[in-house]
Amino acid sequence: MALDPDHVLRSAAALLTRKSTATMDEVAKAAGISRATLHRHFAGRDALVRALESLGIEECEAALDAARLDEGPAGEAVHRLVREIEPAAGLLAFLYTENQLFEGEEQNQGWTRIDERIAALFRRGQAAGEFRIDLTPAWLTEALYGLLASGAWAVSEGRVAPKDFTHMIVELLLGGALRRQEP
Amino acid sequence: MALDPDHVLRSAAALLTRKSTATMDEVAKAAGISRATLHRHFAGRDALVRALESLGIEECEAALDAARLDEGPAGEAVHRLVREIEPAAGLLAFLYTENQLFEGEEQNQGWTRIDERIAALFRRGQAAGEFRIDLTPAWLTEALYGLLASGAWAVSEGRVAPKDFTHMIVELLLGGALRRQEP
DNA sequence: ACCAAATGAGACGTCGATGTCTCATCACGG
DNA sequence: CCGTGATGAGACATCGACGTCTCATTTGGT
C-alpha cells in the first residue's frame, strides 16, 4: 500500500550521509522495504539522488522562508536560518559532497536561487554596517555550507552535542573564535 | 623509468578532489600514465586512497611543524597554520569527505595525532584568555577542517580568489562575520 | 650498440551493483 | 468472502570497473 516516499527519502538521506557509497540494497533495507519496491518508487540510483536533491532544495527554501531573512538585524536572521535549517543539515551535508550533481553544467537552478538568497542576507548585513566587508558574501555563503556540513558530521560522530549545533555554528560564523570584551 | 610516484599522487588528488568517483583509468590518464603502470605502483584503488591518506597526513604534520603552533599568540599560530596548510587543502578536502576511510573502526592514528595537536592549539588560546571558551576545541578543530574544505572548493569553483584563501579562512575562523570597532 | 628495466596498449576473466522480471503473499476494500 | 493492488523474495541478464596477464616498444645505463 502506498508506501510513504518521504520516509524512504529520509532514511536514504540518513544512510547516505554516513555512507555515501551505500548500495541500493542497503538503502532499501535502511528504509525497511525491499529492493524491488525501492525500484518501483525510484527508477534508479540516479533518480533517488535527484529526489534527495529536490527534497534538500525544498527544505532549504522552507527554512529560508521560515527564517524571514529580510526582517530585523542580519545577525539574528542568520541565527534563525541556522536554527531552521538544522533538521536538514545532514541531508545538506550529503548533497554538498555529492559533487556528481554538479558535473554536468546543468547545475540545478534551485541551488542558485538559494545561494542568492543567502548571499543577499550577508550583503544586507554588510550594507547595514553589521557585517565586515572584507569577507565577500559568496565566501560567507560557502562558509555557512561548510560549517553546516562540519556540524552535522561532528554531531553524528559524537564530537559535538546535538543541542549545541546551532550555537556552535552561529557563534563561530558571526563572532569567530577570538574572545572579545563586549557584546 | 622510475616514475615519480609523488606526481601521480598529486594528479590523483587534484582529480579526485573534483570527482571523487573517478575511475582508475581516469586517474591514470590524469597522471599521464597508463592504467597498467598505475597498477604497478599502487596495488589497487584502495591502496591508492591509502597512499593519498598518508600523503595528506605527512603534509599536515609538516604544516603543523612549520607553523610552530606553540610559539607566540595562538591567533597568529592559527594564521601560520592555515598559510602552511593551504597547498594541501585540496587533498584534505578530498580526504575529509572520503568517509570510507573511517568506516572500519581502524581510524588512521595519524589523524588522531593531528586532531590532538590542533585541538591543543585552541586549548592553549583559551587558557591564555585569547579564545572564547564557549566553543569547544573539538568543534573549533572540526570547523577548521570544514572551512579548509569549503575554501578549497570555493577556490576551485572560482567563487573565491586563490590569493584570498588564507585571509578568508583565518579572518572568519578567528574574527567572525560581525563587524567590530576595536582590535 | 646492447641489455635490462620500465612503460603502453590491450586482452582477458572476475565481481559487485544495477535494473528487470516473475511469482507468491499480504492488505485492504467492495 | 473474494478480488485488486501493492509488496517481498528471489532469479536473471547486463554492465562497468577492477585486477591480472601478455607482448611489443621505449627508455636509460653500461
UniProtKB/TrEMBL annotation, chains A, B:
Listed GO MF terms: DNA-binding transcription factor activity; transcription cis-regulatory region binding
DNA-binding region location: 23-42
Keywords from the UniProt entry: DNA-binding, Transcription, Transcription regulation
Domain HTH tetR-type positions: 2-60
Entry-linked PANTHER family: HTH-TYPE TRANSCRIPTIONAL REGULATOR BETI, HTH-TYPE TRANSCRIPTIONAL REGULATOR RUTR
Name of the protein this chain belongs to: TetR family transcriptional regulator
